[in-house]
Please model this.
Amino acid sequence: MMKYLDHLEEWIITFLMAAATLVIFFSIIHRYGAGFPIPVLQDWLIGLHFGWAQELCIYMFVWMAKFGAAYGVRSGIHVGVDVLVNRLPVEWRTKGVMVSIICGTIFTGIIGTLGATFIWENGLHYALYHLLGMPTGDLPEGPTTPDLEWPTWFVYSAVPMGSYLMCFRFMQVGYRFLKTGELPHSHDESHVEGLEEEAIEHSPLTPAKDQAAGGTAQ
Model:
């Protein structure tokens, strides 16, 4: 179960990014293609409705941001100011790191709960009762989005889902830190996978003092 959960953010972000790219691509093709006076094709393109494309892409980017934040907690790529923690005595550094992890857990848990409450009162309550065939009474159906006409509670559900996932990732990081004493580290952009240091040292683009000295002696 955990091996799938540990890649949940990557799968969601990859799908949303690919879908947004395709939607934007076809929207641009439609916009400019409809301007060419080509018989039949122009009428067909004008008949297509792509007014929802911008709205959908905005929502997908919002979802990418929320789940990307959870991925950042798991992989350690969030920007952090650790000057104070690094200046603490060694015995206090662990406590300082744990305080920051606990604060992140509490904060994301609160945001997730507030978001869940909001979407519940914004139409999720009605949708769930309606789906289960239960009487809805005076429950509000909730507003819908302007172009897609989707229920807004579905769009805003990225807030509680992403926040609760961040909360879970904070707890994961805290558990591993207590167990191993290590935090996740961000990827080193200067490092190229598969390129060994030995190959870099012998590269003709890398100045080598020894080789230069040897060449001068000869």
Q: What stands out?
A: Residues 2-185 form one domain. The mean pLDDT is 82. Residues 28 and 201 are 47 Å apart (CA to CA).
